[in-house]
Design a protein that fits this description.
The protein is built from five helices and seven strands. By secondary structure, the chain is α+β, with helices and mostly antiparallel strands. The chain binds coenzyme A.
């Protein structure tokens, strides 16, 4: 498996399929209507404009396995060094370390653009995502009860966060 910068021409279609499947069938994402094809062009443009990474995971033979990205946590200037992350893995590739690999690479990319804090905003019933964040070193940072509504019921979100260690200074300190 390899993690590569996502390329619109190669990855937009399978990313949209994965995202729309989650929108239609789960509460893991609070969008309720599937996105049109044009959504992905905007998605790539917005991430490129903000210099936020969009990463894709591929198998050795180039099959799409999943993606991870981040964007502004909130839009006020003081939040410049915080970002909210997303990670999605195709159902057939889950539980094989793809999500962990995407998160690790995303963190490296985020350090490179000056992100200090990464935040996961997760549906409280999304136990695989909560477990993934915990395994990757994210700590529980609060719950907003009944923040969302989908499929005719209230949904709560939990926050998980990680403060990114500056690897270069940590290595310098360690000598
Ligand atoms: C959450 C998700 C990205 C995890 O990706 P993944 O590639 O399966 O994750 P990994 O294989 O790297 O798993 C890492 C750890 O997460 C935990 N985990 C992952 N899936 C789990 C599951 N179904 N049940 C319990 N723990 C799980 C485990 O601790 C696992 O480590 P282990 O296999 O050594 O026990 C994937 O399930 C997914 O795409 N879900 C749908 C989209 C989604 O919910 N995205 C997050 C939105 S906030």
């Amino acid at each position: 498996m390899k993690i590569v910068p996502a390329v619109f021409e190669r990855h937009a279609a399978p990313m949209l399929e994965l995202l729309n499947d989650a929108i239609l069938h789960t509460t893991w994402v609070y969008d309720c209507e599937p996105h049109p094809e044009s959504y992905m062009r905007e998605y790539f443009d917005e991430h490129a404009a903000g210099r936020y990474p969009v990463l894709a995971a591929e198998s050795g033979d180039g099959a799409f396995l999943g993606f991870a990205s981040c964007g502004p946590y909130r839009h006020y200037q003081g939040y410049l060094h915080a970002a909210e992350l997303s990670v999605y893995v195709v159902p057939s590739a889950r539980r094989a370390g793809v999500g962990t690999a995407l998160m690790a690479r995303l963190e490296d990319e985020c350090r490179g653009i000056g992100i200090h804090t990464l935040v996961g905003v997760i549906d409280s019933e999304n136990l695989p995502s909560i477990a993934l964040h915990r395994k990757c070193g994210y700590g529980y940072a609060g719950t907003v009860r009944e923040a969302g509504r989908k499929f005719d019921r209230w949904l709560s979100i939990v926050y998980y966060q990680k403060i990114l260690e500056d690897k270069s200074s940590a290595e310098a300190v360690r000598g």
